[in-house]
Amino acid sequence: MLNRGYPYTSIISGKARGQPLLSHLASLYPHSTLEAWQQKLDNGEVTLNGVPATGSESLTAGQTLIWNRPPWLEPAAPQHFELLFDDPHLLAVNKPSGLPTLPGGGFMDNTLLRLVQKQFPNANPLHRLGRATTGIVLFTKTPQAAAKLTAGWNTRAIQKIYRALAQNVAPQDAYEILTPIGLVPHPLIGSVWAANPAGKPSKSLAKVIARTAGTTTFQVSLHSGRPHQIRIHLASIGHPLVGDPLYGPTGQPLENLPGLPGDGGYLLHAQFLKFPHPITGEQLHLEAPLPPEFP
Question: Do strands 283-287 and 268-276 pair parallel, antiparallel, or not at all (unpaired)?
Answer without folding.
Answer: antiparallel
